[in-house]
Recover the amino acids of this structure.
């Protein structure tokens, strides 16, 4: 299983997508061209669960008796496993009964019609009518080893299948480019709203942005610092916050930190392909700031910043460690911040800039890499 919750799924018809439509059992020649490279790329770079299926009922006993079919199926799975290609599920209809339509066959996929799977980003890969019917039944897109002319002929007989096919091709490379090409990777965006009796906050992020956004907290110096985060992290962020500033800035600052941490955590998703670790040294006149961050799934915070003033402008400096601690807790990350003594304004601004550049490094997603940056297998 590639993802534990709300996973997209690729349903692959063994016959027509992995091996050629059955003629006779000739292992040396029946593999679809490019299938090993294609499935390997999906296995390595994709975030999909994979389901292999086959519609045995379409073969007669004379062509492929059940015993021979099972032997062939086992050989196929063993060969693919030897290439590190494995499936999360295998669905085969071994029924010999005469059936009307595909209803009984389609019922075998019932488990995938619930809320545990992301069908909006799922696909059927096949070569004919039954694959289009399965895609239509599941409400997913269909990638077909066929031609547009053949699809038009099928739709003429089955008009309900119009629009089901997203791609017709004869090449596995076309399919893998669509499924795991860099431009097809999920957007890393999130929006968090937090409403309490003390604050009302809306915050959105795009980790793959260009450093654009708007900040409105009602605290001028804090706005200035969060604008540094946008500029130096490259993350797009829009923040609107209303809080009980007539009391003090504590609730507003804390809740913004919580929203910011939660938004980045959500946008990172399963964290596949990211750097995970980020660190930076940043000079600002007489001060040198240091930051190290690890989106490990575990919160831990260290603050070594010898501030000598209680306020910068009207902003209480004791709120800065509280902001970063609240962010660390919400984002579930290790965060270590340090700066030498100097002008308090320079110290804090250097910390925010250094933090921003460290986040940029840590959330960086490598092209064509879907590995989880952990030997534990989970973050």
């Amino acid at each position: 299983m590639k993802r534990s919750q709300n996973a997209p799924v690729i349903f692959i018809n063994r016959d027509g997508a992995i091996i050629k439509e059955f003629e006779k059992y000739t292992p040396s020649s029946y593999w679809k061209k490019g299938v090993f490279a294609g499935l390997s790329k999906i296995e390595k770079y994709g975030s999909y669960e994979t389901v292999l299926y086959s519609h045995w009922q379409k073969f007669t006993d004379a062509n492929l008796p059940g015993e021979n079919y099972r032997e062939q199926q086992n050989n196929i799975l063993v060969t693919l496993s030897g290439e590190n290609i494995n499936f999360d599920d295998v669905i085969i209809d071994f029924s010999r009964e005469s059936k009307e339509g595909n209803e009984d066959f389609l019922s075998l996929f019932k488990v995938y019609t619930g809320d545990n799977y992301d069908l909006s980003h799922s696909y059927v890969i096949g070569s004919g009518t039954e694959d289009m019917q399965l895609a239509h039944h599941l409400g997913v897109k269909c990638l077909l080893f066929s031609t547009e002319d053949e699809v038009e002929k099928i739709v003429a007989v089955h008009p309900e299948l119009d629009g089901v096919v997203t791609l017709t091709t004869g090449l596995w490379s076309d399919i893998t480019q669509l499924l795991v090409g860099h431009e097809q990777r999920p957007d890393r965006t999130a929006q968090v709203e937090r409403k309490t009796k003390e604050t009302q906050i809306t915050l959105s992020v795009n980790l793959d942005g260009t450093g654009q956004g708007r900040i409105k907290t009602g605290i001028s110096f804090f706005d200035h610092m969060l604008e540094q985060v946008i500029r130096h992290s490259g993350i797009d962020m829009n923040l609107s916050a209303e809080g009980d500033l007539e009391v003090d800035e504590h609730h507003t600052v804390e809740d913004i930190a919580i929203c910011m941490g939660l938004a980045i955590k959500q946008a990172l998703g399963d964290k596949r392909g990211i750097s995970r670790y980020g660190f930076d040294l940043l000079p600002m006149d007489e001060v040198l700031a240091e930051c190290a961050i690890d989106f490990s799934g575990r919160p831990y915070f260290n603050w070594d910043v010898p501030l000598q003033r209680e306020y910068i402008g009207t902003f209480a400096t004791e709120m800065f460690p509280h902001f970063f601690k609240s962010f660390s807790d919400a984002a579930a990350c290790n965060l270590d911040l340090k700066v030498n003594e100097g002008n308090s304004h320079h110290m804090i601004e250097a910390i925010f800039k250094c933090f921003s550049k460290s986040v940029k490094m840590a959330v960086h997603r490598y092209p064509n890499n879907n590995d989880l940056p952990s030997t534990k297998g989970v973050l």
